[in-house]
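Ticket #4471: structure output looks truncated?

Reporter: J.K.
Steps to reproduce: submitted the chain below (280 residues) through the standard prediction queue, then opened the result file.
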Amino acid sequence: MKSPTLLKLEQQFLKSLRTDKNSPWLESIIIPAHQRNTEEVLDLYLNRARTRTIAPFHEIFPACEAIMGSELFDRFVDDFYLHSHCDNVTVLDYANSFMDYLTVVKPEFFEPLIPTIEEQTIDWSRLLIDVALTEWRLRRAETAPTLRKNNPEELLHRLRVKKLHGYRPKLEHGTRIPFSCYCLVPLTKAHKCPIEPRHLIAGERKPYLIWRKPDNQVEIRTISEDEARLLRSCNGHLSVTAILQEETHFGFSREETLDRISEAIKLGWIVSLFDPMSYQ
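Returned output as attached by the reporter:
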């Protein structure tokens, strides 16, 4: 349990990060080094905290920055930081909150962006939320601890042993299967080459797979709605038997679904078949 003084210190520090005025209480407990005043020392600490949490946004959201332009992106980030209610001063916590901020951002912030692309009216709020969310998911997939413990051959053997159909298939940690009306595939390479909004205009809703490949490279790829439904069932809660039964309602025989699960294992999408009894 934190002491009241330490808790107050954290609260006052966070409050000062989000306002233009430093906390008098913080200034009162700082003992500055020779030839420095209290306000100067506190500003140094606050600026360092802001830099450590906000500077990585350029790395996490390169496509957002490319679409907005650096000047407008910095304006978004500064306004977000000022109004953020995130209580943890960490990069990932702030980046996670950035998507929430984009849903309530002031309309005038989007005025510098052109209203149409190739004769299509652009809903910039919707586009940027999708882009930011996808870039956040890419980072999560990249940094999540791996679940790969067995090679595909071992998993395929388990899958074909009928008595093991109580096992539950799981995808790699950090894998996400979003739907979007935008083309998300180019965002995989946003760190390497500039992204333009016209690259993202798709026009129809599609499911995507965001996953970390066996070589640890993160990828976005389009998948079919049948693949999306099957992979979403591989969440560690449904057994192979339950998935086989569920897919019969979509016109797939049990053998066909077994083949589809086998293919997902070979592709590296399904990385685990665990025994729920082992947790008891």
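Triage note (M.O.): checked the attachment and the full token line is present. The beta strands are 116-117, 120-121, 168-171, 179-182, 201-212, 218-222, 270-274.
Status: closed, working as intended.
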